[in-house]
Design a protein that fits this description.
316 residues; single chain; alpha/beta; five-stranded parallel beta sheet
Length: 316
């Protein structure tokens, strides 16, 4: 009744890059539907239970030449995790299966089994260089243009979240197909992390006026002083980690400290200006200030700005 189905494909999609993960899943589903129609497509979550998923992957195609079963959140079903070998062995030869699980523990039997027996794709985060190149390619495919330099600047402003970068690029291309630093400054609001980098960089460069200007800009955007202080504390902690790592590679530091490589590279640029003793003292001062703001009636705006000016004056 139907043409012979060429071959069964069992795919595992995993990794922390949700943007690429969703895009890969969408691509597989679209390719299947274009060839076989929507009647052969079924979607499940691990929460639907092992028995229901097993029954689906065993089923014979009925209204389509082949079937595809997409299973997300595998680890939500303990039985599915424990019986993955049984399920894989029971899949109908005319059924494709796509397993989608962002967080697979490499130490588990589940990971090792899927890695060995399925088409295994790890969708990991891209570093800033790869993201810039990706933006250049995406702009070109959309009929626009962005230089590698301006793409890197967009990453610096918006951060390394690929979903956000994709949305920002789409917005920029709608405004003008030729994306420039000027249009990025006009339309893209800097990420909080990028703002804190800039704030500290200016302070450690001794530029008090620019430091206060960035702070005031954040206040105009209704970012509370306590939130700015919390971000400063986190960033100072990161700077200490990077500083103590010495000449270790970006890859080693990011893996050991569980930090994005983008964060490590930007932190390295700042730590070259500083001594570790000074950094530790600043972390101590931020903690003390945070406690004071929470326990004593204090003008938070004045206190945080005074702290930033102290940093700027000490390094000027």
């Amino acid at each position: 009744m139907f043409s012979c189905y060429s071959r069964q494909v069992i795919t595992t999609l995993t990794g922390s890059n949700t943007y690429v993960l969703k895009a890969a899943q969408k691509s597989l589903v679209q390719a299947f539907v274009e060839k076989n129609g929507e009647f052969g497509l079924e979607r499940f979550s691990g929460e639907d239970g092992y028995d229901k998923i097993l029954q689906s992957v065993q089923a014979v195609p009925f209204l389509a030449p082949a079937r595809m079963v997409v299973v997300t959140d595998i680890v939500a079903s303990k039985q599915l995790v424990e019986s993955i070998d049984v399920l894989l062995g029971a899949i109908n030869p005319e059924t494709d299966v796509v397993f989608v699980e962002p967080k697979l523990d490499k130490r588990t039997v589940l990971y090792k089994t899927l890695k060995k027996t399925t088409e295994f794709r790890e969708c990991n985060e891209l570093d800033e260089r790869a993201l810039a190149q990706w933006l250049v390619q995406e702009a070109s495919q959309a009929g626009g243009v962005i230089s590698r330099t301006d793409a890197a600047y967009l990453v610096c402003q918006a951060g390394t979240d690929q979903s956000r970068l994709g949305n920002e690029l789409e917005k920029l291309l709608l405004y003008d197909p030729n994306v420039t630093k000027q249009t990025i400054d006009l339309l893209v609001e800097p990420s909080p992390q990028s703002t804190v980098f800039a704030l500290l960089d200016e302070a450690f460069s001794g530029n008090a006026a620019r430091t206060l200007a960035i702070y005031q800009d954040q206040r105009k955007q209704r970012t509370e002083p306590q939130a700015i202080l919390a971000m400063l504390g986190w960033q100072l902690h990161v700077l200490c980690l990077v500083k103590t790592a010495g000449n270790e590679s970006v890859e080693h530091i990011s893996k050991a400290a569980k930090l994005n490589p983008f964060v490590v590279r930007k932190s390295q640029a700042i730590t070259r200006k500083l001594h570790l003793v000074a950094l530790k003292r600043l972390v101590h001062d931020v903690v003390e200030l945070d406690v004071r703001l929470k326990t004593v009636s204090t003008d938070a705006d004045e206190a945080v700005q005074t702290f930033l000016l102290t940093v700027a004056s000490a390094t000027s």
